[in-house]
Write a structure and sequence with these properties.
- The protein is about 45% helix and about 15% strand.
- With about 1050 residues, it is an alpha+beta fold.
Length: about 1050
């Protein structure tokens, strides 16, 4: 019995023993066979297998099928086992990620498979952010060497998995044992694994390393979670008998039940073959043993062979072929023909809106199901990259065969033939890839939409996959795997979010009743006598509404998508006009339009908790058309009667987050310039949209002139609403929604503005800053004591308003800041006896405000967002045409820099330096220019400006709008600027200039109003008289450069 047979007895079932390499040979025959294969040096003395023989028969794996494989063989294996793979791990010593990045990317494209975990050792880099997006669809974790560029380990983990870093397992380097390692917990479909990537530097003390590793192994064993350790350990397992320290290292792993899964040499040179790249598997001592397959991949990227391990489900499930509807152009044309030939007389003759709509939607859905029947996919769609042709695959296989021949025979002629062929292959592969992407992004033959679709495919800018299939969920105290039970439970959770929060008020408040509405009406002091009237819709309006639909949006419960409606707009227009007008005149919304399909989307955290899923509510597209028509009428009524609170920036025309930030920051600068102390309060409302009380909302609508049949329409719209959750392809039971504005609706945001509109009445004399439910208040006083007292009073009043309106204040996320910083820590605020957190910085509408107004936190935030594009742009610059690269820069870099640049760039240039340098680097990468290339030419090529000039440009454009286009800005900016002529009557040379108010401090000089006036007055008169914003923008760019 040879070593392989002994290993089989300890670890494998009899049914698979014969599949092992060299099984059935005697030891003499085994050695002879290895010699014939020129592989005998790999197993000198076979010490490693002697250790495996010493293990008892308590197997960790049912099957371990280890082998050398080619790319073609591994691709076939992965495709065959795909649905049965529970976790897949790939490891390779890359020996410089910088020089091998193209080759490793091509390898995975050839394999046509996405491993769950990719572990790379010896990455040799310090500019680690370059590689954050090397593999699209993966998150990057790493550990770098302390004193050199050599070494390092990087873990790329698919973003469909949940990852938690485990710093407690980190092995710290010592003087005699230098090691880089990274440990994470990976959750895939509710199954947790501990993953460790290790690189141990060579010529270090093995005994010291083992001593450092043993406590980690013991701790993981105690956790009883499956664990995979992979890396270049630089300990040759084939020499375990010769070296006592190696023997102890192997013993420590085996004692803790870590099974080695790499059994053959991984580093093969003309003079040696060593097993120094290790992979170990610990099954967590669970009752469900897994089947594993592992091997070495014959790839020539470095002098180390890649290793892989596949953990398989114990029960091999047959492949289930999904059923889908084929939305082909032929089927779409067939649908349009059916709809066009439909007789709608039964709809027109029906006076009841529910019956009319039911007749209409039944006709449409019957046509839909007839033209788009469910089809079973005959085979799994390939993920092949189209530039990897059959010929290129054949060339790769030939190259690998030459490589295998060389490493086994060690013949110089074979080495020369291999290297010559490899050079030819790399050149051909590079040209094929380049030609493919040039055609893919040909600006002349593709639409803009198709170009961006292709870009997302290549770069996965929108590749973050959100799981909506839930394998297991905590249902009460039990962990359930039943799809129906999961679907019903998560639907109940979503449906009861608002109700559960509103119940908190029942003990202290009886609520608002229709017979006694004074409790909430006391704030409605801007009510009007003028009633809202709804004009009927016509065909032109409905056609316009249909044309405005976003064709990429998902369909609702009726499965009719917006693109089909747009294709059949002419035929659908008239019956929709009849139904919409019938709804308006009767005050009834069709019942089927009040049903929502909810898709649970995983956020983060434990996937078995319902609270870690976000509900995505999908309504019928026909409902959105009806709501859009009513929304336009309600918004017009509110605007024409000046009913919307002027400091509400959310969901309004000519309002934006940038303008909201400008308003807040400018008011802070002005008060600080006046010597006042400011307390900024940032309130967080918990599930605000879900907890809107319908009765209170209807009362407020009535005060705003929504009366009679229109009021009946809104009452009907809010009542008798139902939802079901679609999870794991299972529909849950239908549940009624009794509070909250409808999620995913068109009217919901505007109705929420109505609900929040009277909050300012609670604080007479104070200006509450709102963006939908983002509620902020800035209190000032001559000193902190005065400001603190006033802030406490305002908090009590706002808390009362929230309670009366049944909105829940999330005190844990509510915070306050003091401007300038309170070094004495004398300000303490609370809500209902619970302290409010005092912070030094806070996020407000995407901008991080710090109490010193230095903007360093926000600058660092933008820097972190943009640094990831370094690696992406390196990857793209040789694939895409220059015009597309310019579009990419504007979409993903310029847009980040531009957002609120009027505010955050108004700081010390030193603080902006890191962003300026990063922007220069990104431009240089995209334009493929050397380091010493003039920066000014980089900006000229892309027709943009450096950050400081971009700040000036945006301020000047804002000033132009304030002077020439005030109607396109919120009312609060109406008198933002004034000329000298309006301030005094003196006939000075500067009487036509804007009036510059005196600044008492540097805060006043940083006030946007001060900066605007200064820049505008310096601008040449020809630029001030520009015809449009776009022409001024071009002129300013030329002026500043």
């Amino acid at each position: 019995m040879n070593y392989f047979q002994l290993f089989s007895i300890s670890y494998m079932t009899n049914s698979v023993m014969s599949e092992l390499p060299y099984y059935g040979l005697s030891n003499t025959e085994l050695q002879k066979q290895l010699t014939n294969d020129r592989l005998s040096m790999m197993f000198d003395n076979n010490e490693f297998f002697d250790y495996l023989n010493n293990l008892n028969s308590s197997c960790l794996l049912k099957e371990l099928n280890f082998q050398y494989v080619t790319e073609e063989q591994l691709t076939a294996k992965l495709k065959k086992l795909d649905r049965n793979i529970e976790l897949s791990v790939f490891h390779m010593n890359i020996r410089s990620l910088n020089s091998k990045q193209r080759q490793i990317c091509q390898l995975f494209e050839l394999l046509d498979y996405e491993f769950d975990v990719i572990i790379l050792t010896e990455i040799w880099t310090v500019n680690i952010n370059f590689y954050a997006n090397l593999f699209t669809g993966y998150d990057f974790y790493y550990d770098l060497p302390q004193d050199s560029k050599v070494g390092g380990v990087g873990l790329f983990i698919r973003n469909t998995c949940t990852v938690h870093e485990l710093p407690q397992y980190q092995i710290l380097s010592t003087r005699t044992s230098v090691v880089e390692n990274k440990w994470v917990e990976v959750t895939k479909e509710s199954r947790k694994y501990i993953i460790g990537g290790i690189y141990r530097h060579p010529n270090q003390n093995i005994a010291d390393f083992t001593s450092l590793l043993e406590p980690v192994l013991n701790s993981i064993s105690d956790q009883k979670l499956p664990c995979i350790i992979a890396g270049d350990i630089n300990i040759d397992l084939t020499k375990s008998r010769v070296n006592e320290n190696t023997s102890r290292y192997v013993d420590s792993l085996l004692t803790n039940n870590f099974l080695p899964t790499v059994l053959m040499p991984t580093r093969i040179t003309p003079s040696s073959a060593t097993l120094i790249d290790h992979m170990y598997y610990f099954d967590g001592c669970g009752s469900q043993n897994k089947v594993a397959q592992s091997g070495n991949l014959l790839a020539d990227i470095s002098d180390h062979l890649p290793n892989f391990m596949l953990i398989l489900h114990e029960k091999m499930e047959p492949t289930k072929r999904p059923k889908i509807r084929i939305m082909s152009n032929k089927n779409r044309e067939k649908f349009c023909e059916k709809i066009s030939s439909t007789d709608w007389s039964a709809v027109y003759a029906e006076p009841d809106v529910n019956t009319a709509y039911n007749t209409f939607i039944n006709t449409v859905t019957n046509a839909f199901y007839s033209c788009f029947p469910l089809k079973t996919l005959s085979r799994k769609r390939s993920r092949d990259k189209k530039w990897i042709t059959a010929g290129l695959k054949k060339c790769s296989n030939t190259k690998n065969k030459l490589y295998k021949k060389w490493i086994t025979k060690r013949n110089p002629e074979d080495e020369k033939a291999y290297r010559q062929y490899r050079a030819i292959y790399r050149k051909v592969a590079a040209e094929a890839e380049s030609d493919y992407y040039k055609q893919m992004f040909d600006m002349r033959s593709n639409s803009i939409k198709q170009l961006w679709t292709n870009l997302n495919i290549v770069c996965s800018f929108k590749n973050k996959r959100k799981r909506n299939n839930i394998a297991q969920l905590n249902v009460g105290d039990n962990l359930s795997s039943d799809a129906t039970e999961i679907s019903n439970y998560i639907n109940r959770y979503f449906a009861n979010i608002g109700n559960d929060l509103q119940k908190k008020f029942e003990n202290s408040h009886s609520g608002v009743r229709s017979s006694d509405a004074n409790e909430c009406w006391q704030y409605c002091n801007n009510s009007i006598n003028k009633s809202m009237f709804v004009r009927p819709v016509d065909a032109a309006e409905v056609m316009h509404l249909i044309c405005q639909l976003n064709g990429s949006k998902s369909p609702g419960p009726d499965d009719i998508g917006p693109r089909l409606i747009k294709d059949s707009a002419t035929a659908l227009c008239q019956p929709l006009v009849h139904i919409f007008n019938l709804s308006f005149t009767t005050g009834i919304v069709p019942d089927q339009l009040k049903i929502a399909k909810v898709i649970p989307v995983f956020k983060k955290g434990d996937s078995k908790l319902a609270s870690n899923y976000r509900p995505i509510s999908l309504l019928s597209i026909f409902d959105k058309l009806l709501e859009r028509a009513m929304r336009n009428r309600l918004y017009y009524h509110l605007q024409i009667n000046n009913l919307i609170y002027k400091y509400q920036f959310g969901f309004r025309h000519n309002h934006s987050t940038t303008l909201a930030v400008i308003d807040v920051i400018d008011s802070i600068y002005e008060r600080l310039d006046n010597g006042e102390k400011i307390i900024g309060l940032y309130f967080d409302l918990q599930k605000a949209f879900d907890t809107v009380n319908h009765e209170i909302l209807l009362c407020k609508l009535q005060k705003f002139g929504v009366r009679g049949i229109v009021h009946d329409w809104f009452k009907n719209y809010l009542s008798d609403r139902y939802q079901y959750t679609l999870c794991n392809s299972i529909k849950s039971e239908m549940l009624e929604i009794t509070c909250g504005v409808p999620q995913g609706s068109v009217l919901g945001p505007l109705l929420f503005l109505v609900y929040m509109n009277d909050i300012n009445v609670a604080l007479q004399g104070q200006k509450v800053k709102l963006f939908a439910d983002d509620t902020n208040l800035f209190i000032s006083g001559n000193n902190l004591s005065e400001a603190s007292e006033l802030a406490a009073e305002c908090i009590d009043k706002l808390s009362e308003w929230f309670t009366i309106n049944k909105l829940t204040l999330n005190i844990d996320k509510t915070c306050f800041m003091v401007f300038p910083p309170d070094k004495t820590n004398s300000v303490h605020l609370s809500v209902n006896g619970k302290a409010i957190n005092k912070v030094q910085s806070c996020r407000y509408l995407g901008v991080i405000i710090d109490d010193e107004l230095k903007w360093t936190d926000h600058i660092h935030h933008v820097y972190k967002k943009l640094i990831k594009y370094v690696g992406i742009f390196y990857k793209l610059r040789n694939k895409l045409p220059s015009a597309m690269l310019k579009n990419i820069y504007y979409a993903f870099v310029h847009s980040y820099l531009l957002y609120a640049v009027e505010v955050y760039a108004n700081t010390c240039p030193t603080y902006l330096d890191k962003l300026v340098k990063l922007n220069n680097k990104l431009l240089r990468i995209l334009q493929n220019k050397p380091l010493l290339y003039p920066v000014s030419l980089l900006y000229d090529e892309f027709k943009t400006l450096p950050l400081t000039d971009l700040h000036k440009q945006q301020l000047l454009l804002f000033a132009y709008k304030l002077i020439h286009l005030p109607q396109n800005l919120p009312e609060i900016f109406k008198n933002y600027l004034e000329s000298n002529e309006c301030v005094h009557e003196y006939n000075t040379r500067s009487k036509a200039d804007l009036h510059l108010h005196r600044a008492e401090t540097t805060y006043g000089q940083r006030c946007l109003k001060y900066k605007l006036v200064t820049l505008w007055n310096e601008l040449p008169q020809t630029l001030k008289e520009s015809d449009s914003v776009s022409s001024l923008k071009d002129s300013i760019r030329a002026y500043l450069t």
